[in-house]
Amino acid sequence: MFWFLLITMVVVVAAVTLAVVGGGDSEVLPDVAPEQLVDPLPAARPVDRADVEALRLPVAARGYRMADVDDVLVRLGAELAERDARIAELEEALAGAAPAGDAGAEGGEK
């Protein structure tokens, strides 16, 4: 009886191993292509808050794909630098226009 149980266990373990690993004739699963970033950030207009909130980066085996994250961060950094430059330009224009506007108003009152 002991030998019968031992042989049965060996056959069951071998069958389970073959089922998990796969036999010679079993169909092999195809390799799945890695998930790629579909850039939802608009190219024709500046990025806004809704674009950033809608952004979903693809997940890799150990977190996010570094190249995709780097691309998004470079794009957002460029957008912020462009906005900062535009804000500085507008502030300069406002600072230059404010004294001229004030002098005209004061001259009209006197």
Give the neighbour order of strands across the main sheet: 1-2
| Strand runs, count | 2
The major β-sheet equals: 2 strands, antiparallel
**Mean pLDDT across all residues, rounded?**
80
Strand coverage percent: under 5%
Number of helices: 3
What share of the residues lie within helices?
Answer: 55-70%
Backbone structural class: mainly alpha
Order of helices and strands: HHEEH
Radius of gyration: 33 Å
Large-scale geometry:
rod-shaped
Segments where pLDDT lies below 50 for 5+ residues?
A: none
Intertermini distance: 120 Å
Molecular structure report:
With 110 residues, this protein is mostly helical. It has a domain at 56-110. It is 64% helix and 4% strand. The chain has 3 helices and 2 strands, in the order H-H-E-E-H. A hairpin with a 2-residue loop joins strand 1 and strand 2. The longest helix is centred in the last third of the chain and has 44 residues, at 66-109. The N and C termini lie far apart (120 Å). The model has no long low-confidence stretch (mean pLDDT 80).
